[in-house]
Amino acid sequence: MALVLPQLDNSEYAVGWIAALPHERAAAEALLDHRHAPPQNKHTKDDNIYSLGSIDGPNGEHNVVIAGLPPGRYGTTPAATAAAQMLSSFPAIKFGLMVGIGGGIPSNDNDIRLGDVVVSKPEGTFGGVRQYGVRKATDHGFEERGSLNSPPRVLLNAMGALQSKHERELSAIPSILEAMYKENSLMAKPRQGPGYIYQGTNNDRLFHPDYAHSASKKDCSECDSSKELAREGRSDQDPYIFYGTIASGDEVVKDARQRDLFLDCLCFETEAAGLVNDFPCLVIRGICDYSDTHKNDRWQRYAAATAAAYAKELLQITDAAEVQSSPEARKIMHELQEIKSDTNKIVLNIKQQHLDRKRERIFQWLSPLSPSARHSESREQRVEGTGIWLLEDPKFFDWSSEIPKFQTLCCYGDPGVGKTVISALVIDELKKRAVSRPEIGLGFIYCDYRDQEEQTTENVLGAMLKQLLERLSEIPERVLTLYEERTNHGKQLSSTDATDLLRMTCSHFSKIYLILDALDELKPRDLWGLLKCFRDGSASIQIFITGRPHVGGTIREYLKTEQSITIEARESDIQRFIEYEIGGPNDIEPKAMDKQLRTEILKKIVDSAKGMLVRAILQATTIRDREESLKTLPSDLGEAFAGTMTRIERQVKELSERAGKIIAWTHFAERSLTIDELLCLLAIRDGDTSFNSRGIPVRETLLNCCHGLVVIDQETSTVRLVHYSLDEHLREQNQILGLTKAQWHSKIARTCLTFLKFPSVSAREVPEQNHRTTRRLLSYAATKWGHHLRRSEGLPDAPLELAKEYLNTGLANNVLSFRLFCERMDPYLYTESLFNDVLPVHIVAFFGILRIMVDPVSTAWNLDIKDGNGRTPL
């Protein structure tokens, strides 16, 4: 009668045992103390074939599930699949044992022999298993892929107890094997091939790493014995047990030189890396070869048996109650997956932040310019439907086609005809095309006469490079390399670098569109530099340029062939704009308009605008005030500006004076002022001895008094005149809002000097970091007051006395402003010595203020005294 095996419920099994090869599984099955019937059921997607049983010990019985891998399938993926399927059918499993053979890594520190056992144990940063990959073509042959999770605590506790036991007495492995041979005689004396018994010291040969196996025979009978490494003999043939790191990967290592790159590990194997990160387990390996070319199958069965015997001895000492109280492996796997997922997200986030910061640094190095904000402002100025005529022009259609006849399209027009609005329209049109076509690159810049110092050839090219690189998923290696090379030597982007990078970047796109608005507002040197770069650039670049007609000759000189279109504010465009501004959705007083008046206003403005959109804008913002304005519409742009100035003067005194200061500061300032700086300057009054923040005007309504002549540049947060043509108009005037230019310079100089004499500004302490505006104002006042005073020194009320008071307080009382002046006076030769030696006479000489130099009080100054760089005032 056949023996009836007990059949347990799947939930009663707590130990999962993975044995990849048939002889590894045979050894595991042979060491079970009791065999159980096959499982009653399995998960529908579980393909494993199981052997069930139990192992007894003084600390309780352990029910074990054994699974192997399909024949011919080994490696991390099949092992992971087997473990996952096992847990789907046996949900109560607490941990796993990965038991089988491995290739030894003998060293001076670890005299590993064939048949010895290696057990994964956490060491340092490694959790007991270290993942590797064999590289196909490298100097070192191995690619690190990280370390994996530690074994579960219940197994570490048992392993520690077993190590302590082996300090007192020998391992039970030999006796466990003897019992196995007694119960399974065929394993000791197989019908063919080596059995599960010790294979003899004469078959345990370790050769020099450089000595390769003789290919004529499978075993090493013909290998040169003189190439063997001499090793001290052992007193018995019982296996030694080694604890440490196991190297795991999909590739079998068969090269001693590659093996010796991992001397900090104990052996190689090919399944554990698929388990330990997702399945809490311990890896146990019996050593069957030395991972070299002399590798053969002779020791595999014995090595599988010693590893299985250690696993049994470990379970025998493991507390069954502790196992039952341990969390289920499936739950641990889920938590590990969540942790892994969260960790991956954190790592990716950190990496992305690092990349973003580096990208930001690279972009800042390429250029400080950010044209996008200016583009948003220009888009807001355009009324829907205006400028469409350009997109329908055959020349634009050809230029923007897939195979254009001309590389360059220039749009010329007089001041105020709407060239910038046209540029914004073209940019938006090309942006729409590029949305679904990543192979199209787009870069643009709005040139501005007020930003000539910053809008250099290098910065303009760099700004367009940034826009092109933003469309790429990764910054090209050439850009990264050049950035590192230049910044390591403290160098900025040169025009040559920018040209080379632009040419290189072109290779990442099938076509690149570059739009340059108001090219004529650049300095001539920078304009020539840009055109030279475009001339030497790639044929895949399509260039769109707007500017005044006079720049056409220069463009044609550098870019031999170009198409041109004359820009005028078409009647239809002006009409759309006026309809939008007067009595339309943008009218602040839409009810103060009847149909007859609206029609009359439209006709009158359209007739008088003469193709100039700026004039139409100015008129539209004033005509709604009074119907009588229709009788005095200006006939040209200068008259339009003058009319607006007149309306500014007719405001209440407070508003007209404020408008005068705003326009004067915006027009006469030596550099562009931010809106915050302007607010602070307007708060300073003659005779003030400290800064009173309660005098700062309301930011939101500040510019209303200027009737549209001053606007905020959204890109830089600076204030500027509405158009270059207004700046030209003001330069031609003798007076601005009732004051001469010299009088305005005098007022500006007085404000600067008043600010410099504030105790909070002249003190030694540097202002707090959040007072950036204060620091910028201090820099402006300290380095520009003299220029404004020089331009007003012919006036009887010029603030000469205020300047003398400031200068005579000396370095000790004006540390910050004097230092900023010295840095500005000679930024390349600035030293602490120059700062300490600077005197009022040097400052006055630098600014060229003759009335102070010849003043009787000042004649006592020594005009021969030298500064820190050996220069005298003369």
Descriptive account of the structure:
- GO terms for molecular function: catalytic activity.
- Residues 385-548 form the Nephrocystin 3-like N-terminal domain.
- It holds the Pfam family NPHP3_N.
- Residues 657-733 form the GPI inositol-deacylase winged helix domain.
- Keywords: Repeat.
- With 874 residues, the protein is α/β, with parallel strands linked by helices.
- Among the domains are: 10-214 and 231-326, Nucleoside phosphorylase domain (Rossmann fold); 367-568, P-loop containing nucleotide triphosphate hydrolases (Rossmann fold, 3-Layer(aba) Sandwich); 572-633, no CATH class.
- 43% of the residues lie in helices and 12% in strands.
- It contains 34 helices and 21 strands.
- Strand 7 and strand 8 (142-147) form a beta hairpin.
- Helix 20 (595-609) runs antiparallel to helix 21 and helix 24 (675-683) crosses helix 28.
- It is elongated and about 120 Å long.
- 40% of the residues are buried.
**Mind describing the biggest β-sheet?**
12 strands, mixed
Question: How large is the radius of gyration?
Answer: 43 Å
Query: Mean pLDDT across all residues, rounded?
Result: 82
| SSE-based structural type | alpha/beta
Indicate the low-confidence ranges by residue numbers. 135-141, 764-770, 827-831
Q: How widely separated are the two ends?
A: 125 Å
**Rough shape?**
elongated
Per CATH, the superfamily of one domain is Nucleoside phosphorylase domain
Helical fraction equals 40-55%
- CATH C-level class of one domain is Alpha Beta
Number-wise, the strands total: 21
Looking at the overall shape, the CATH architecture of one domain is 3-Layer(aba) Sandwich
User: Number of helical runs?
Assistant: 34
CATH topology of one domain: Rossmann fold
Proportion of residues in β-strands: 5-15%
